[in-house]
Amino acid sequence: MDDTHSEFLELLAKIKVCEDADFLPLFKKIIEHTRGHFSLEEGIMEKYNFNEAQVHIDEHKRLLGEMEYFYTNALKLPVFGESYIKYYAYDKFKDHIVTLDTQLATYLKDNNISI
């Protein structure tokens, strides 16, 4: 999971400083990356009967929904998506990693589960 988180943070760093023409394609790539990452995590939670899975899955739905909302609006008005990325997304996903993903990682470690 750490590699996937690093890839995500690299994409966020890249989009924060990209040229205007690259913004929407990078934003879409971030959404696709996030969708794949969340799917992987949800499969792990299901496979190993993680007891807090529903809270984690609900947060995934909310975060992905927000990303898709801002992307859709950025197609019409790019500054809308840019403000989301620059002033909101990084902290939101960092909080998710520090709280919910750390909780999942601890559960896996405590149960001697390696992925």
Largest sheet: none
Give the domain tally: 1
Distance between the termini: 8 Å
Poorly predicted runs are: none
From N to C, what is the helix and strand string? HHHH
Strand content: under 5%
Averaged pLDDT: 93
The total strand number stands at: 0
In percent, how helical is the residue content?
A: over 70%
Rg for CA atoms:
15 Å
Strand-pairing-aware structural class:
mainly alpha
Tally of alpha and pi helices = 4
Shape: elongated
GO molecular function: metal ion binding
Organism: Sulfurimonas gotlandica (strain DSM 19862 / JCM 16533 / GD1)
Family: Belongs to the hemerythrin family.
Protein name: Hemerythrin-like metal-binding protein
Task: Give a concise summary.
The chain has helices spanning 2-16, 20-47, 53-76, 78-110. It is an all-alpha fold and 115 residues long.
Description of the molecule:
Helix content is 87%, strand content 0%. Helix 1 runs antiparallel to helix 4 and helix 3 packs antiparallel against helix 4 (78-110). The chain has one domain. By secondary structure, it is an all-alpha fold. The chain starts with a helix and ends in a 5-residue tail after the last helix.
